[in-house]
Fold:
Amino acid sequence: MRWIVGILSLEWFSGKHAKRNWTIALGVLLYSMLSIWLAHLGEQKARELTALKKENRRLRAEYVETKKMLMHDQLRSSVYEKLRDRGYVIPKRPPHLLLTEE
Structure:
């Protein structure tokens, strides 16, 4: 109980071992500041990583969509080439869609 009163009355920083106590207090303060700074840096890196993951997902989806369109166009052009060899002509206008009611 006596040591609590000594700390609260700041006797701890002005007694016969004050230099050692100040050194310890400054060391703890520097360690605390370093810990807070490193935690802040870690949080920044985590936010940056999350943003990069989102960007990666978006770019991957765009890549898959582009690849699908390319494969579809390649298939269409190969079918056109086979039809051209047989004498068919590719129409200039697309066919009309007939809608029927049931």
Observations:
- Residues 30 and 97 are 76 Å apart (CA to CA).
- Residues 18-85 form the longest helix (68 residues).
- The chain has one domain: 2-85.
